[in-house]
Amino acid sequence: MTARTLTREERQLAYLWLVAAVSAVALKPLWLAVVPLLRPCMFRSLTGIPCPTCGTTRAATAFLDGNLIAAFTANPLAAVAGALFIFGAPLTALWAVFRWPVPELPSPSSTWLRAGVIGLLVVNWIYLIALA
């Protein structure tokens, strides 16, 4: 795997990510006030089967409340994505500030990587269906 330096635009994106993550945590009271106003999942309402993203709102609110177990129980993939979003932001900003080299991923992505991502989505959906 090769490494390269971040471009100016990538550094700006890293700082923007940090601002978005800090804002998401700082606006927690607003998010919690908006949750009751959200519509239920239309897919689940029509079919009775949870969609692949069912439980994401519960996972996000539990995550913002600091209840990682409840977040992971509601939707494991959403909880991991939320953790990567919140905890990855400061790491990425530090990476940009210190201009550390960035490992380059192969392009296009390998078949194994794509199959792994699809596999994670399917396993997560099976978990949500089994939980229902």
Figure out the total of helices. Answer: 7
Mean pLDDT: 91
Measure the end-to-end span. Answer: 42 Å
Which structural category do the helix and sheet elements fall into? mainly alpha
What features would you describe in this structure?
The chain has 132 residues and is mainly alpha-helical. 70% of the residues lie in helices and 3% in strands. It is built from seven helices and two strands. It has a two-stranded antiparallel ribbon with strand order 1-2. Helix 1 crosses helix 6 and helix 5 crosses helix 6. The longest helix has 23 residues. It is flat. The N and C termini lie far apart (42 Å). 14% of the residues are buried.
Topology:
Blueprint: E1 3-4, H1 8-26, H2 28-34, H3 42-47, H4 56-64, H5 68-74, H6 76-98, E2 102-103, H7 111-131
Antiparallel strand pairs: 1-2
Question: Can I get a quick summary?
Answer:
With 132 residues, this protein is mainly alpha-helical. The protein is 70% helix and 3% strand.
